[in-house]
Design goal:
Blueprint lengths: L1 H10 L15 E5 L21 E7 L9 E6 L2 E3 L6 E3 L6 E2 L9 E5 L7 E3 L6 H6 L4 E3 L11 H10 L9 E9 L4 E3 L13 E6 L4 E2 L2 E5 L6 E10 L10 E7 L3 H18 L5
Parallel strand pairs: 1-9, 6-16, 7-16
Antiparallel strand pairs: 1-2, 2-3, 4-5, 7-8, 8-14, 9-13, 10-12, 10-15, 11-14, 15-16
C-alpha cells in the first residue's frame, strides 16, 4: 500500500516541493516606488516612472550578493535640459541584450516537437543566451523571504525601490511592433498576437509566472528580428511601463551550415587555378 502511494505521489509530481521561482531568474516585473530622482542630470525632479509597471533585468553578483540590483529595461525617463525636461515612454537601456554589453542578439535555433521546422528562443549556447536567454518572468515579490543566497538582497536593492506589491493588478503584454515573421507563443497558442488585439494577459499581480517563446519559420528565417512591448495593468491600478525591445538572430540549422560550407568549398575549387 505504501509503495502504491509512493508511486502515485511520484506520478503526480508531488515528490519534491515546487519552488516559487528558479534560483537567479533574470526577468521580473516590479512597480517603481521611487518618487524623486536622487542622482544624475535630473536629480531632485519627480520620477516619471513612479507608480508604473517596469520590466526588470536582474543583475546578480555572486561574489558580493549585497550589490545585487535590477536594471530598468522598460521605464519612463526624461530627455532634454534639466530645467525643462520632457518625459518619454522609454529609456536609454530599453533593449535585450543590453546594448552596453556589446553582445549580439539572442539566438533563435532549431526547435522540436510542435516547433519542429521552426527556430525558437531560449535554447542557445552563445554568451548572450547564457545571460539573457531564460525569458521566464515573475513578480519581484517572489524573491521576498527567499533563503537562497542573494535573492533577498535583490528584492531589497535600490533602497527597496522595487518591493511594492502588484496585488490586484491583471498584467498584460502589449505588442507595439515586431519584425514580420517573428511570432510569440505561450506554449499553447502558436501566436498569442495573431488577432487584431495587441494585448495578451500574462498573469495576476504577485502571482505572475509567464514564459514567452519567440519563433520564426526555419525555412525562411534569416537576419535580425525584433519585437517591442509595454506592460499594461488591465485593472488600471498601476501605470503602463515604458517600451522595451527583444532582439533575436536566426541561427541556421546544422544541415544548412553543412550545405553552406560545401558550397564554399566547391566555389573555392572552381576558382582554383589550373595546374600544368
Amino acid at each position: 500500500m505504501l509503495l502504491r502511494l509512493a508511486l502515485l505521489v511520484l506520478a503526480l509530481g508531488w515528490a519534491q516541493p515546487v519552488l516559487a521561482a528558479p534560483l537567479y531568474n533574470s526577468y521580473f516585473v516590479g512597480v517603481d516606488g521611487l518618487a524623486t530622482l536622487t542622482s544624475g542630470t535630473y536629480s531632485g525632479l519627480a520620477n516619471p516612472n513612479a507608480g508604473r509597471l517596469t520590466y526588470l533585468y536582474a543583475h546578480w553578483n555572486f561574489d558580493n550578493p549585497g550589490t545585487n540590483h535590477y536594471h530598468g529595461i522598460g521605464a519612463y525617463s526624461y530627455t532634454g535640459p534639466a530645467g525643462s525636461p520632457t518625459s518619454v515612454s522609454t529609456n536609454a537601456n530599453n533593449a535585450l541584450p543590453e546594448s552596453y554589453t556589446g553582445l549580439g542578439p539572442l539566438s533563435l535555433i532549431e526547435g522540436s516537437g510542435a516547433f519542429a521546422g521552426r527556430l525558437v528562443s531560449g535554447l542557445g549556447t552563445a554568451e548572450q543566451d547564457h545571460h539573457y536567454g531564460d525569458l521566464q518572468l515573475f513578480s519581484t515579490q517572489v524573491l521576498d523571504g527567499s533563503l537562497a543566497v542573494g535573492e533577498q538582497q535583490m528584492f531589497d536593492s535600490s533602497g527597496g525601490r522595487w518591493t511594492g506589491s502588484l496585488a490586484g493588478s491583471i498584467l498584460a503584454l502589449e505588442l507595439v511592433s515586431r519584425t514580420e515573421g517573428l511570432f510569440v507563443s505561450d506554449g499553447s497558442a502558436l501566436d498569442v498576437f495573431s488577432g487584431p488585439n495587441p494585448l495578451f494577459t500574462i498573469g495576476s499581480g504577485d502571482e505572475l509566472d509567464w514564459t514567452p517563446l519567440f519563433w520564426v519559420d526555419g525555412a525562411s528565417a534569416s537576419g535580425i528580428y525584433s519585437a517591442t512591448f509595454r506592460l499594461i495593468d488591465l485593472e488600471g491600478i498601476r501605470g503602463d511601463s515604458g517600451t522595451f525591445t527583444f532582439n533575436f538572430q536566426a541561427v541556421p540549422e546544422p544541415s544548412v551550415l553543412i550545405l553552406l560550407a560545401s558550397g564554399l568549398v566547391l566555389l573555392g575549387t572552381l576558382r582554383r587555378p589550373l595546374q600544368d
